[in-house]
């Protein structure tokens, strides 16, 4: 059996780091198992679905390192859903209901007031052809519900019906279908709900494993029942914990919270985002993983915790910095050039240890090329004035900084911060930054002399 998984976003907004978690989990699982990953757009909502969002999602996934083996769109498959729906209707498993949303809510409110669970009472099953015709004459259109197999022949006498499965993340799970309402699969406007289209697609595309957020656990029992009603073997399910902020707040695609696009524009490395999205909320340490191949090796669904996967967005900065500090020149040279930097091994090795993002290198490039707003404290003016005379003769090399400061120490008696800081401030305008041993040759002798008083 070839493992086949899918990530099925609706193109109604930009994906965020929380959405990237199931996308990454599915892709990593497929690669670990030698399987296939399908990107399948749930775009049957023609009002809210937009091509620009689909394009954005594909761009964001590829930036993260997720390269789909196939891309599908549900909007191309409407005739397939029509056939599957008719099959369920013919079997008496999909029945029409004419209640309006307001009527259904009033009914649920009465059930709650009586201390009963707000489960649909299957009134639609009792309606005669004459009653349905009367509703149609009023202009009502039916929505269609799937009849759950939670009875022994009389749908109005439900019994406990546990649907069980072995979850890839959570172990043995079970859902009682008697505690649920028959799900709506077709809206009154004739459009299909994702629950139905997804199952039809999963069957036809040979999806073997479904890995998704724990918010879908209760849906799984219903979906297994629909799979079986359509004479299909259900896939293997896995429900991971959801990624939230450190305050436990959920992430919203429509609000743009921590969108992948915004993280990319902030200069973050894709592997910093992927590492945090995958490892947070697991028993593994949250650490920067340098490549997707390495992340495939670390990936383990059994390490996913049942507790919330809370993360601090500031963690991304630390992870990103650790990745940047190890990046070789050939991994960043194009990005440096795009910033207007002339990439060189000497420059990148000098500055990368002080960069949280690759873009931070521009600050140090501007210091090297100038101009620089030199800083001289009053108590350091005489010392800085002396420094010019002790600058080593000849070309500036990595040994020049040590020779220069040693000579000044011998002459003035200064040491430590009092020796180094005034020189750093006058040459770079900063109190911190890359090692001056490496920076001095990059600045060059003429610029050094120009910056000294």
Main attributes of the structure:
alpha/beta, 453 residues, Glutamyl-tRNA Synthetase, domain 2, Rossmann fold, 5 domains, 3-stranded parallel beta sheet, 3-stranded antiparallel beta sheet, 45% helix, elongated, Glutamyl-tRNA Synthetase, domain 3, 20 helices, 12 strands
Description of the structure:
The chain is of the alpha/beta class and 453 residues long. The chain folds into 5 domains: 4-79 and 192-242, 3-Layer(aba) Sandwich (Rossmann fold), CATH 3.40.50.620; 89-167, Glutamyl-tRNA Synthetase, domain 3; 245-324, Orthogonal Bundle (Glutamyl-tRNA Synthetase, domain 2); 329-369, no CATH class; 378-451. It is 45% helix and 12% strand. It has 20 helices and 12 strands. The strands form 5 sheets. It has a 3-stranded parallel β-sheet with strand order 1-2-3. Helix 1 crosses helix 10 and helix 1 packs across helix 11 (292-298). The protein is elongated and about 105 Å long. The model has no long low-confidence stretch (mean pLDDT 95).
Task: Describe, in short, the structure shown.
This protein is an alpha/beta fold and 453 residues long.
**Principal-axes shape call:** elongated
Structural class: alpha/beta
Radius of gyration: 31 Å
CATH superfamily of the largest domain: HUPs
Task: List the topology elements.
Layout (H helix, E strand, L loop, with lengths): L3 E4 L9 H16 L3 E6 L9 H14 L5 E4 L4 H13 L3 E4 L3 H13 L9 H4 L2 H9 L5 E4 L15 E6 L3 E6 L7 E3 L7 H11 L4 E5 L3 H13 L6 E5 L2 E3 L14 H6 L4 H10 L12 H7 L10 E3 L2 H11 L4 H10 L6 H7 L9 H9 L11 H10 L9 H13 L4 H12 L7 H8 L1 H7 L2
Parallel strand pairs: 1-2, 2-3, 9-10, 11-12
Antiparallel strand pairs: 4-5, 5-8, 6-7
